[in-house]
Write a structure and sequence with these properties.
Length: about 260
């Protein structure tokens, strides 16, 4: 079902770290052109299959478009923000854990990424990268993906179907059916408009900032974690167990699905 194919080179970083601008925010690489055309973001947004608990925690889907000099594809970069990430004990048993065992992974605010790469000449999806677990990326090609259409895509099959896995809200590929559009579930807004606010909130305090500002940087490294962190080191395990590449199969999951 899953093949052990590495996305990037592991812990090595391609390029240099983002320098800060005079106002203190990271400077986007010169080779990246950023925009947020709502019609295009709507056309390529992934469709989500989510249970009622995950859906109740969703706040807003944000997105932006990245174009890179001398690159044939364009990237649509999405972040889905949640009100909180509960513990697995709370999620499965309804028990509030407070500060005792099991609460280590609970936190307010959660943000989960997905990147859709498109050929602008054909307007077709080529491949996608999404958080398969704990901000480690999983790659899937269009040939292996369940792509479905909507009125926002003019009937073209441009929406990758992803299942939201509670309580951490990472994604699995969903091979059956057609999920719900985030633009209908939560609204879809420009990440460029909220970008500085997220930095003010230290949303990316543990992230490799170049991978936030340049989707191809993420593709090269295979994860969103800052260099030298334990999360970055554990990426090698993600590669070893074979979850870096998705061949279109599903991981079985019992769920109370809500897709409307």
């Amino acid at each position: 079902m899953l093949a052990p194919v590495a996305i990037g080179t592991g812990l090595a970083s391609v390029g240099t770290a983002s320098a800060d601008t005079e106002d203190g925010y990271p400077e986007r690489p010169e080779h990246i052109t950023a925009s947020a055309p709502l019609d295009e973001l709507e056309r390529y947004q992934p469709k989500l299959h989510a249970d009622s608990g995950s859906r109740s925690r969703m706040l807003t889907m944000y997105g932006w478009k990245a174009e890179r000099d001398e690159h044939d594809l364009v990237a649509y970069y999405y972040w889905l923000r949640y009100a909180k990430q509960p513990t697995w004990i709370e999620e499965w048993f309804g028990i509030q854990t407070g500060s005792w065992f099991g609460a280590v992974d609970e936190h307010l605010g959660d943000h989960e990424p997905a990147i859709i790469l498109v050929d602008p000449a054909t307007e077709e999806v080529v491949e996608a990268y999404y958080t398969g677990y704990h901000h480690y990326a999983t790659r899937i090609t269009a040939e292996n993906a369940n792509l479905t259409s909507s009125s926002l895509s003019d009937g073209d099959e441009t929406h990758l179907n992803l299942r939201v896995i509670p309580p951490h809200h990472h994604y699995n590929h969903e091979s059956d059916g057609s999920g719900a559009l985030p633009s209908n579930l939560t609204g879809l807004e420009s990440w460029l408009d909220i970008r500085e606010t997220w930095y003010d909130r230290d949303t990316f305090s543990s992230s490799h900032i170049p991978a936030v500002e340049d989707p191809w940087e993420l593709i090269e490294r295979g994860h969103w974690w800052e260099d030298g962190s334990w999360d970055a080191r554990l990426y090698r395990l993600w590669i070893a167990v074979g979850f870096a590449e998705d061949d279109g199969g599903d991981i079985q999951y019992d769920h109370d699905e809500v897709t409307d």
